[in-house]
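Example record

The entry below shows one chain as it appears in the dataset: sequence first, then structure tokens.
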Amino acid sequence: MLAVRRKPSSQRRGAILVLVAIVLPVLALMMAFAIDVAWMQLVNTELRTATDAAARAGAKVLSVSQDQDVARAAAIEAASRNLVAGVPMQVADSDVTFGISEQPGGTGRFVFTPANTGVLNAIHVDGRRTNDSVAGPVSLFFARVLGVDTFQPVQEATSTVLDRDICLVIDRSGSMGLDLSVRGDRNGQNCGPLSNTTRFAALHTAIGAFLDELDNTFPDEQVALASYSSEFRKRCRRNGNLDFDTADIREPLTQNYTAIRAQMDDFMLRGIGGSTAIGEGLRQGIAALNDSSARPFAVKTIVLMTDGLHNTGVEPSVIARLAAAQDITVHTISFGAGADQTRMQQVASITGGEHYHADTAGDLSEVFREIARTLPVLLTE
């Protein structure tokens, strides 16, 4: 028997058309809504980035300049380098607030308190694209069919200049007694008082410049002083005999920078000498930052300098890895043509620090000043 074909019902075709007519507008609305939601998320991310950048830049400039107007201008300029909804971010003067960021009770959580005077260490930025902001609200694409033309995102960020515990690890080997005009790493003057034209005298001046710079910064830094050469004994006619261990902590962490200066003065008066055990000096630097007076939330930094070549004791890179494991950053300084720049660069790299080279006494002082001004900044809110 032959099958009978039936024609599609015109009623069924009509029902499908009605269903399509109903579903298509709903799908279009959902797609439009999805586009606007994605746009809003993108703008919020851009606003977050711009606000964070403004807070970081303002805090860094605040720590160096100690001038609220200059820091506010830096924050506003940093924000403008970031696009939000396709236009440079605009921050009003009133959106930038200065204050004090503290960790009450040693909780690890920072609390920001607005202030215009005192020891200011933080900057708070309100990033706004609202009706009353400089740039106004952000336009939407399709939500306006529902009567919603714009949205008004708000982000905020607080950057805090962190306290540092710093250990200066200095080279007191025999070559530091050479006159600045002499190249090489042979022994120079040992018994004090040291001449004002020696390499150590240049270091003495540079340490003074470093401490002067710290006196002008907002956060409270504790500073320790460690020194290294090798075991060294020498009879001197004046100011006592020299009797050095390989490395030692000359002054533990302190906020009394006069004590650090006094130790440097003592070297100038009594003298220096020995080989160059850079690794042992670095080991003493780590020990100084683990002293009972070290602060748990302070950033730990070592400034390690030498004018020569490592030639005795443990390899410095081995100790650098121990420092890195303890979140201690080591900035290294090589001084003069005979200094081992390659090894010092390696030590700094292992710990995430920077390496600096100084050819002259003036260069050395400027390097120490730069390190003192390079303060760590943390987004705390």
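Notes for this example: Residues 10-65 form the longest helix (56 residues). The two ends are 83 Å apart (CA to CA).
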